[in-house]
Amino acid sequence: MRDWQLSRTFASRSGKVSWEALGDPSAPPVVLLHGTPFSSYVWRAVARSLAQRFRVFVWDMPGYGSSEKHEGQDVSLGAQGRIFRDLLDHWDLAEPLVVAHDFGGAVALRAHLLHDARYRRLVLVDPVALAPWGSPFFRLVGDHSEVFAQLPPALHRALVQEYIASASHPGLHPATSDRLVAPWLGEQGQPAFYRQIAQADQRFTDEIQDRYGEIALPVLVCWGEDDTWIPVARSRELASSIPGATLRLIPGAGHLVQEDAPAELTAAVLDFLTVSG
């Protein structure tokens, strides 16, 4: 795990947040948001590439990755949106560039529309943004999270491993799979995995979906053409609901675009973030 470590912390309203900043402190700031059940680790290749031209901020949401996990923790989209706004204040970022994946997309959208977080440009990568969402598996686990949390550790590991693997179209390298599964293991990780699913609620995107037409900043929607978690048709629906949004499809990539096509995603993001104006 030494290949990706977050050395700094922030005391959020839902527990300790681990974060890191890469690149020249004087460069334009970019913030990367991960989704579920992932962590900032999925951004490692993109972050290191962007850090050649930007100051890149990465963080693990409370309840995820190397950030704090504990019983009774609020890890809902409602909490994460407020925490993200708090982090922007902590980092003293008035109007950063923002790139957000999956649930991170909902977090960034809620922070912008409900908590007055301002961005210079926004990239949404296969975001959770439109109803209905949640696979049959996701809903089953959410409805019976306390039962699933009691699975024997070996069965739990197998379940998480298969679930995460399904986010990739070409398949994950075993070492990458192990790294993504690791935060969800053990006495803290196993209950945290089911906790975040139990608290996932479509009402958090229902509250903002009708307001996407209010977004008045440049937006790029990126989507893996082979995403089996959120159908690619949603990309067109979302892009059409945001005034002036640009749509970029990534061939050969599933939901976990950062792992499936990091070079193609980085190129698309760089093209968009470096446009003047």
Structure characteristics:
single chain, 277 residues, alpha/beta, eight-stranded mixed beta sheet, 12 helices, 8 strands, 40% helix, hydrolase, Alpha/beta hydrolase, AB_hydrolase_fold, Carboxylesterase_BioH
Write the layout of secondary structure elements.
Blueprint lengths: L7 E5 L2 E8 L6 E5 L10 H7 L4 E6 L16 H14 L6 E5 L1 H13 L5 E5 L10 H8 L1 H4 L4 H13 L8 H8 L4 H13 L4 H7 L9 E6 L8 H9 L4 E5 L6 H4 L1 H12 L4
Parallel strand pairs: 3-4, 3-5, 5-6, 6-7, 7-8
Antiparallel strand pairs: 1-2, 2-4
Helix pairs in contact: 1-12, 2-3, 4-8, 6-7
Report what the structure shows:
The protein contains twelve helices and eight strands. With 277 residues, it is an alpha/beta fold. Strands 1-2-4-3-5-6-7-8 form an eight-stranded mixed beta sheet, sandwiched between helices. Helix 1 runs parallel beside helix 12 and helix 2 crosses helix 3. The protein is globular and about 55 Å long.
Radius of gyration: 17 Å
Share of helix, binned:
40-55%
Tell me the structural class. Answer: alpha/beta
What is the tally of helical segments? Answer: 12
According to DSSP, the number of beta strands is 8
N-to-C series of helices and strands: EEEHEHEHEHHHHHHEHEHH
| Main pleated-sheet profile | 8 strands, mixed
